[in-house]
Specification:
The protein is mainly alpha-helical. The protein contains twelve helices and no strands.
């Protein structure tokens, strides 16, 4: 299974609950948003789906083989059991499909347009290469490794320790901002990104800083500030979002 070695037990159980339709409404909402923005995560879900389907198919095959052995003795009973298994399988599939369609419809019609747009376009910053060639920056890149693995809380904690002595560092402000944004804490991301765009205009990631700051305001529903910051970015995606906000 592709990427199977990278799936933790907790994530595997969450995906199984998703496929079994046992997530809460909030969990399902978060899960679907992650599916929309993360192609790697979507691929992992499909891999788990294929794995579970294969296990179920093999189990059903073994059950049917046992049924076939008993056909000469209990033909009627075996036929009834086979029909029951088929009926239950179709019923479960139909019920799951109905739940997915119903919840998907509720999310689509009840979610504000700004949140839909955010979910369509937000992807975490990929981060910097973690060569750790400089011992002076070891702590920074150690946190970067955590960030790139999705351990945002740990990365933020480590960067915060550096931030205390370097509050004007653009790179620290930027990555603390995008880490909070990736951690779904827009209100905490905004001050760091604001400091980034207000400091140096020659900062190498200034266009990305304006882009993510615009997305943060978009998620919060502040459309005017979202437009203001997105318009300062030269990123093509920022321009695309702007065009949809002005339609």
């Amino acid at each position: 299974m592709k990427n199977s070695d990278n799936i933790s037990q907790e994530l595997l159980e969450t995906i199984e609950r998703y496929l079994n339709g046992t997530l809460s409404t909030q969990e399902l909402d978060d899960f679907n948003r992650l599916l929309d923005i993360d192609d790697d995560f979507k691929a992992q879900v499909e891999d788990v789906r294929a794995m579970l389907f294969g296990i179920e198919a093999q189990a059903l095959k073994e059950q049917l083989n046992e049924f076939h052995k008993d056909i000469p003795k209990t033909k009627t009973v075996a036929h009834t059991q086979k029909q029951k298994v088929r009926f239950l399988s179709y019923s479960r599939i139909a019920a799951a499909a109905a739940i997915i369609i119903a919840i998907g419809s509720i999310w689509f019609f009840s979610t504000p347009q700004n949140e839909k747009l955010y979910a369509d376009y937000f992807k975490p910053d990929p981060g910097l290469p973690t060569t750790m060639s400089s011992t002076d920056n070891f702590e920074f890149y150690e946190a970067m490794v955590k960030y790139k693995h999705g351990d945002y809380d740990i990365a933020i904690s480590k960067w915060n320790a550096l931030y205390e002595s370097k509050p004007d560092n653009d790179t620290l402000n930027y990555f603390l901002g995008v880490a909070h944004l990736a951690n779904r804490k827009e209100a905490e991301a905004i001050p760091f990104l604001e400091r980034t765009v207000q400091s140096k205009k020659d900062f190498v990631l200034i266009n990305d800083a304006y882009y993510y700051l615009g997305l943060a305001y978009l998620q919060q529903g502040n459309i005017e500030l979202a437009k203001t910051n997105l318009s300062q970015s030269d990123n093509d995606i920022a321009k695309e979002i702007l065009s949809k906000l002005t339609d």
